[in-house]
Specification:
Length: 52
């Protein structure tokens, strides 16, 4: 068992605990949305300058 890679162990764990991968996906989405809101104003100003 020890020769298994950490990635294999994580994948096996996520197979057994699907809710964990679901929670991770939700967390990533929330962090992405937060980053978009947090830095979106600056990005939209830059895009607006290009569009104008």
């Amino acid at each position: 068992m020890e020769d298994q890679g950490i990635g294999t162990k994580i994948l096996a764990f996520l197979d057994k605990h699907e809710w964990v991968s679901f929670a991770i996906a939700i967390t990533v989405l929330l962090l992405t949305a937060y980053a978009a809101v947090r830095f979106g104003a600056g990005l939209s100003n830059v895009l607006g300058a290009f569009i104008r």
